[in-house]
Amino acid sequence: MSKSLNGQLSFEDATDLYSKYLKKEKMFFTKERLSILKAVYEMDGEHFSVDEFLFDIMKRDYKVSRATVYRCLSQLAKSGVLVEADFGHGHTHYELVGHENHEHIICKECGKVIEVDSDTILNAAKKMAVQNGFTFISHQCQIHGVCKECNQV
């Protein structure tokens, strides 16, 4: 599988992964599913919620239902194209697979989320997987705290 310049899964590889997942689940790769996959790649690698995604695709005149979007984003996560993250905002956020060595730091006061790279955490995750008889695929790490701005209040 190839990665794009920013470390994300290429659109072609994402299409292949999603297609294989759908075939395994005995589902069809419809034009609506392809449209949603394309729209995900147009999000420029940002974290997004279903509502943010719906707002974005409605601005661009995509014709898909809310239910289809919910199902599709879930399928894309199960297929390995997207990663689901819960930042404590009461809903799931999604991001494209890639940037395997980044963590999220989340402010418990204002909800701000920042990404940080940590080879130390990545290497520790790989080591833990191997020590426990697993083949490392990916990891997610969230650090919760209070940001500098909220600490000053």
Helix-residue proportion: 40-55%
C-alpha geometry: flat
**E-strand count:** 6
End-to-end gap: 47 Å
Let me know the largest β-sheet.
3 strands, antiparallel
Tell me the number of helical segments per DSSP (H or I, 4 or more residues long): 6
Order of helices and strands: HHEHHEEEEHEH
What share of the residues does DSSP label as strand, in percent? 15-25%
Main sheet: strand order: 1-3-2
The chain-level mean pLDDT equals 84
Radius of gyration computed on alpha carbons = 17 Å
What structural class do the secondary elements suggest?
Answer: alpha+beta
Low-pLDDT windows of residues: 1-6
Outline the secondary-structure elements.
Elements (H helix, E strand, L loop, with lengths): L10 H14 L6 H11 L6 E2 H10 L6 H14 L2 E5 L5 E5 L5 E6 L5 E5 L1 H13 L10 E4 L2 H4 L2
Parallel strand pairs: 4-6
Antiparallel strand pairs: 1-3, 2-3, 4-5
Helix pairs in contact: 1-4, 2-4
Structure report:
The structure is a single chain. By secondary structure, this protein is an alpha+beta fold. It has helices at 11-24, 31-41, 50-59, 66-79, 119-131, 148-151; strands spanning 48-49, 82-86, 92-96, 102-107, 113-117, 142-145. The strands form two sheets. A three-stranded antiparallel sheet has the order 1-3-2. A hairpin with a 5-residue loop joins strand 2 (82-86) and strand 3 (92-96). Helix 2 packs across helix 4. The longest helix is centred in the first third of the chain and has 14 residues, at 11-24. The protein is flat and about 45 Å long. Mean pLDDT is 84; it is low at 1-6.
